[in-house]
Amino acid sequence: MIWLLGSVALLVTAAATLCVLVDFLRRPRSNSLSLRNQLAIYGIQRCVGVFGAYQGRKMERDSRRFMEVQHALISTILRTGERTRYGRDHGLARMRSLSEFRARHPVTEYGHYAAYVQAVEAGEETAMFGDDEVYLFATSSGTTGSSKHLPMGRQQLRRIMRNIAPLMATTQAQYSGGAIAPVLVVTSRVKPSLSTSGKRICSLSPVLQESPLASLQSVTPPCVTEVETEWAACYLGLLFALAEPELHALFTSFIFVFLRLMDVLEEQWPRLLSELAAGRIEDHLSLPEPLLRRINEHLTPAPDRARELEPMFTQGFDRIIPRLWPRLRFLQAARSGLASDMYLTLARRYIGDLPVLDMAYCSSEAWLGISADPSAAEVPFTLTADSCLYEFLPVSHEGEHAQATSNPIPDGSDAGEGPNDSRLRRRGDASSVTRTHNVQEHNKETDDPRRTTTDRGESHDTADGGEDLRHRLLLANELRVGEDYELVVTTRSGLYRYRQGDVVRICRFHNRAPVVQLLYRTGTNLNIHGVNISGLALYSALRAAAERWPGRTLLEFGTAESALDGSRAGLPPHHLMFVELCGPRLTEAEAALLDTCLQSLSEGYALKRKEGAIGAIQLLQMEPGVFLKLRDNMAARGQAHWSQLKRLHILRRAEDVEFLMKHVLPPIE
Known about the structure:
Blueprint: H1 2-26, H2 35-64, H3 66-81, H4 85-89, H5 98-104, H6 114-121, E1 134-139, E2 149-153, H7 154-176, E3 183-185, E4 193-194, E5 200-203, H8 205-209, H9 212-217, H10 230-242, E6 249-254, H11 255-278, H12 289-297, H13 303-314, H14 320-324, E7 330-334, H15 340-351, E8 356-357, E9 360-362, E10 367-371, E11 381-383, E12 389-394, E13 402-403, E14 434-435, E15 451-453, E16 459-461, H16 462-465, H17 467-470, E17 484-490, E18 498-510, E19 513-521, E20 526-528, E21 531-533, H18 535-546, E22 553-561, E23 575-582, H19 588-601, H20 603-611, E24 618-622, H21 626-637, H22 654-661, E25 664-665
Parallel strand pairs: 1-5, 3-6, 6-7, 7-8, 23-24
Antiparallel strand pairs: 1-2, 4-5, 9-10, 10-11, 11-19, 12-17, 13-14, 15-16, 17-18, 18-19, 20-21, 22-23, 24-25
């Protein structure tokens, strides 16, 4: 009997081994990877695939009982939080349920936590953490205001990696066919500062990109991540990637980082091919000599590959990516938010119809959701029930008519399963439909970060008694499809009813879980003489005007109030629109179209223009590449890593406006 059982076990083991071997051999594999690396990559892929399937089933279960999970989560957060100094100061022990928490706790912003964050940085972790230890302080990008330090616990980071990594790996495998092949990850290592207690203060984005799988598949050696600038990271990434004809995937943090990669490729391809053929880079990246030497040790001369690539560049850059790397299966890059359609259109010139995956919805505060369709033109994200408590502040709809940015809601079981599903009317071309988007937002540049502004323009202190906002927040089961909301979150890391800063649109519900589209960040309004115009309305007006500029392509833009330009003193207050275009310079008549389009989209703006209270928006065409220089300036002066910096569309600093004014092209009369 024992002999029989042993034989059966041996046969089962042999069969399982054979199945694994067959699966390994059937997968696309690159000869540029060693057999050892291939086996390691395969093993990790199988493990995360199994765990990803488990996480997917869990998310599906949670989506069916979304509010039940939310109630359980807030109970856990309150019980943990009551042991902290913040919890004692704000009476969390007296809040025993979600309803009590929502009735008693105010809506907050970052200034509400400043003293507690400082205490945690000094080593008093129990000021905000009850059952976790601080792993790092995540810095926000600072695009819409000053950079913030948000403490992140070790367990919280593990939870994010445990949940998000398997799901992302599973989706990537679906698009790549499970290939065991090299990839290019454009990033660089974080060089953090330290808090008083010795904890890292750094950007979260590069930390989340670190993984054993990426290090095994990456075409760049580890020493390349030691470079500090985006330009150097792009150049070196391209140099190593061009040597690899079997590149299978390309990863950048944002779609505009990919566009920066393409800028480097267009400008530097002769030098790249020269150094590829020589197997050595010269000292033109301002790298430390020891680092340059280590990088050169990983390069080998590839003159044949350089000769093979040269005709592809001389043919032009349309669809250059699939020509350089025929086996490339996808580009992964976040691309949601304001002007995402513009960036995707620009990227399509280089990638053709290659899928562009936007996998997850994550911020410095919390992991928020996973993409329901990562390759869609406008990416929807399914909110995850156990990540944080979600509340939603309705945005007002008065005075502006900004073009819709979402696609029609598709037919099917997912389109109308929400508790309050008021189905949007069927829309054809989204660009031909108008919506209102006047968000009377708080000003993130005020001296007191706790001050905020209501829809009536009245100011109150949300940290101490934001009753107006407190009773306007909605839960996930109270939302309406097609409506827009500002996201408010309560997290495991000590943030309670925190205005996270994103404005989202409810696309549909997946079971009971909201599926959202990220529209834009708060703090993107410009207010002149009481006319509050959102960044979305300004961008919509710009897009409408650009459609009437034949032979030009909109590459980048930024807006500001004229008060930031000292040379305009004495003129009626007005808006400034800085644009970078590909094509001939605009005539004065063409530039004036922007004012006409903005008046058609904003009733308040049109009224003030007729009254003469404000002047016409002035469009200023910029020298090529000036916005990239501005972004480099931002990276140099801030703590955020370059891979985390968003494109700066709303200018709040006089020094940024002054910089751009030095690079304005004169209009053609």
